[in-house]
Amino acid sequence: MITKSIPSLFTVGNLFLGIVAIILVFNEKPELAAMMVIIAMLLDGVDGRIARALNAQSEFGKELDSLSDVISFGVAPAFIMYVVAFQDLNQAASWIITALFPICGALRLARFNVISGMPGYFIGLPIPAAGGVLCTLALFYKDIPAAVLMASTLLLSFLMVSTVKYPNFKKIGIPKGAIWVVPIVVIVAVVLGYLFPKHLSKIIFVPLLLYALYGLKKNVSAVVRLTSRKNRRRRAAEEAAKSEHSA
């Protein structure tokens, strides 16, 4: 019974850190708040793997994971961005954009729970990645214009509910004998996050941003290739029609 509960403990830890992140940002500690979201991402990344390693997967765990993700990677990052960058802007616009992010995240999770994705891919930007990008992007609020931060929030919201494909790394499992290492990794991450919240969060921003842009680039490239093929077929058809007319 205790073994079956271990994955849910990691999920509850993810939820706890999301709530702590919201409290921290309203206490003027955005760097620590962003770090809590990053550590929550780590917990979210291992709970499913631990469940598979212990053969403890369940519908309860799946639903708990989704509900936790809405708070930790939807609500918390949106509040971090709102507090540091949007509070002094147009109230209606800032409220709507702030609310839109967790709403799109919830829609993304609902779709994920009821629709089978493509093997090896997520459909739409996963909410942990979107939340990680948003909360770390917020730390650059002094260097990036508020309009760009608003546009970025809208783009991340759109990517979550889009049909853009993103690589799925969740199938990479953890050997059962190595599960004991996970708590040590989490503790080390918490200590580093507490000691270097600002620098570590900004460093993590880079790979998260590259992941978000990767899917967008692949989708744009696919559209360009499709358009190019259509243009080639159209030109070939026009040339064939001209040849028949000349004959």
TrEMBL record:
Location in the cell: Endomembrane system
Catalytic activity of the protein: a CDP-1,2-diacyl-sn-glycerol + L-serine = a 1,2-diacyl-sn-glycero-3-phospho-L-serine + CMP + H(+)
Recorded GO MF terms: CDP-diacylglycerol-serine O-phosphatidyltransferase activity
Entry EC no(s): 2.7.8.8
Superkingdom: Bacteria
InterPro entries in alphabetical order: CDP-alcohol_PTase-I, CDP-diaglyc--ser_O-PTrfase, CDP-OH_P_trans, CDP-OH_PTrfase_TM_dom, CDP_ALCOHOL_P_TRANSF_CS
Protein name (database record): CDP-diacylglycerol--serine O-phosphatidyltransferase
